[in-house]
Amino acid sequence: MSTTPTAEEPLLVVQDLHVEFSTYGGIVQAVRGVDFSVARGKTLAIVGESGCGKSVTVQSIMGLIPTPPGRITSGSARLGGVELLGLPSAEANMYRGVELGMIFQDPMTSLNPTMTIGNQIAETLMVHRGHSHAAALKAAEILLDKTKIPEAKRRARQFPFEFSGGMLQRAMIAQSLACSPSILIADEPTTALDVTIQAQVLELMRELQQDDGMSIILITHDLAVVARMANSVAVMYAGQVVESGTVDDIFYNSAHPYTLGLKEAMPSNRADRNKKLRPILGSPPDLFDPPPGCGYFARCPNAMRLCRRESPPQYLLEGAGHEARCWLHHPDAPADAAKPGSKS
User: What residues form DSSP beta bridges with 28?
Assistant: First the structure.
């Protein structure tokens, strides 16, 4: 099993991913044609408000979508050339937890309260690496020490309720790193933590990435975390990636009205910190019945009639890989339209 791409190839490539859920109210089109790629040793941040499809996207790649009610209707996710979608469970387990590690949003509900922390980490090594219990437990202690948990040997014999929130998240990181994954998926890993502990966890992830050379997919709604951690960014709205590019492209040359809206709603510590924050008015579209045109039409200050009836394609902009799904970048867009990206 090899997942090593050539120098020119990204490590993970996701194309045209569609995911839906059957409910009593109808079918929810949660993910609608998502495309992105992750380079080796780099961090991709997937950002967007709650319900935009961020977590469903990565759970689909991991094979964690409950079926039913969930269903991947189309798309591709290739890790080093290996197609992950549709793999039988036994084959998926060769990658899930081995090549792909995942940190979940709430460690208290993700860890087993009846098992010690050390045994939970050791179980990963026993299942995927065939270690004996003693060897796996010793490796678990080393991993806890690596993630800067003090007195790792003693802590390995404690239960989740004996850990603080920050230590639980470190333990989750240790468990996800047990098999030295190529990609670490972090689903809002700092949401429930205070600012000080959040900074420590993010710094730990960055140090581990530098030491091990792994890639990170960071799921978040916090633009400050994105600015600190990411090399590239995919902005999601209503189940679609509406803008993608380098972190500098997204922050300094934003090309989609939604990205601009997120920035306007974000507090600043710069000289313009006294500016009035501007919320994005309205609500996301109903994904039981997505609009035929742009999903952001009803909330967009630059919306045109075309935006209501036809979904815009991805337009390639200046900058390596900078793309935006917005009709304002069409060559025939009105000259007097306030085009995103014209100024930051």
Answer: 21
- 260 within a domain of the structure (yes/no): yes
Pair of tokens at residue 209: 């990435």
In a domain, 246, yes or no: no
Q: Which two tokens stand for residue 71?
A: 């269903």
Residue 168 sits in the same domain as residue 212: no
* The Cα angle at residue 241 between residues 236 and 247, in degrees rounded to 5: 75
Q: What is the C-alpha separation between 39 and 247, in angstroms, rounded?
A: 14
* Beta-bridge partner residues of 34: 17
277 domain-assigned = yes
Q: Which of 119, 147, 180 is the last residue of a domain?
A: 180
**Domain of 218?**
9-99+182-230
pLDDT of residue 273: 61
156 shares its domain with 118:
yes
Q: Count CA atoms within 13 Å of residue 299 on its CB side.
A: 20
Q: Examine the domain organization and report whether 78 and 215 are in the same domain.
A: yes
Phi, psi of 10 (to 5 degrees): -70, 155
Does residue 50 share a domain with residue 199? yes
Is a pLDDT exceeding 70 seen at residue 341? no
pLDDT digits (tens, 9 = 90+) for 239-274: 999 999 999 999 998 989 999 999 888 777 666 666
What is the number of domains present in the chain? 3
Strands (E), the chain: 12-23, 26-38, 43-47, 70-79, 82-83, 100-103, 183-187, 215-220, 232-237, 240-246, 315-316, 323-324
- pTM here? 0.87
Confidence check: pLDDT of 6 > 70: no
DSSP bridge partners of 70: 21
Total count of residues recorded for the chain: 344
Assess contact for 49 and 238: CB atoms under 8 A.
no
- 137 and 259 co-located in one domain: no
* pLDDT tens sequence across 74-127: 999 999 888 998 888 888 888 888 889 888 877 788 889 999 999 999 998 898
Q: Indicate if 89 and 124 belong to the same structural domain.
A: no
The Cα–Cα gap between 141 and 136 comes to 9
